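Reviewers of the previous submission asked for a worked example of the structure-prediction workflow described in the proposal, so we include one complete record here. The input consisted solely of the amino acid sequence. No template or homolog information was supplied to the procedure at any stage.
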Amino acid sequence: MSDAADLVLRFLANPAGADLLSPDARFQALNVDVTGREQVVERFTRSAAARTYAEARWTVEARGRAVQALGMLPNGARLVLTVEVEDGKIALVQQQMLPGAPRPATALRLPPALKARIDNALRDRHPMLISYVDETDQPNVTFRGSTQAYGDGALAIWVRNADGKMLRSIRKNPKVALMYRDEDSKATYMFQGRARIEVGVAARRQIYDTMAQVERDHDFARLGVAMIIELDLVEGYAGLSPQGPVDPIRMTRA
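From that input alone, the workflow returned the following C-alpha cells.
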C-alpha cells in the first residue's frame, strides 16, 4: 500500500486526527464546498453525514496522484472519495455517492406534497414529460402542461388534439411513463402506468377545469380528450443532499 493510501485509511479510521490534513484542506460534495482543516474534520466527525462515514467499510486504492476510497454502506450504497495528498497531508477530498439496492416498495398512494408538485408543475416552470410508444413502435417524448393528479393512484392529462398521434398510439399500447424534475431543489419523480381515454362528462369537466388557465386558453371549445393514467409505479425523491436522496419513495400498485 502506498504512503498516500495508508494516510487516507488512517484518517478514515480516526477523522478527528487533524494532523493528517493540510491547514487549507478542502472538502467537496453535492452542494457542499468547505475549506480549512477544522471544517473538514467537522464534516467527518460532527456533521449529519458523520454517522455515514463511521458505518462504511472502507477500501483504498492509489490512482495516480490521487487515492480513491470506496466505502460500502449497510444498505448497499457506496461512498466514493477521491483524495489528493500533498507533502504528506490530505489536501482535497471529493465525495460522490452511488445508490444501493432499490428501497422496498410501499402501496401506491400519491402523497399530498407530490400531488401539489404535479398540479403546479407548469406554474412553477417544471412542466412534466410523458413518453409513449407510437404506432410504428418508436419512442416519443412530449411536454404536457395539463398533467394533474387524479385521485390517489392516477394522473390525468387534457389532450387537445383528439386525432393526434398520442391517442392513436395508446389505443395500441397503453403503457406510458412520465417524469417530473425541479432543477432548483433536484426533486425528481418517475411515473409508470397505463393510459386510457375518459369519456365521462363529469370526469372530462373536472380534468379540463383543473388544468392551468394557459392550457384551457388553448382549447376554449373543449374539443380535446381527457386521458387518465392508472399508475403502476412511482419512485423518486424530494431533493438531493450530500447524504443522498431526500425523502425517497418507491410505490407500486398492489
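The longest strand covers residues 225-237. We consider this example representative of the routine output the project will generate in years two and three.
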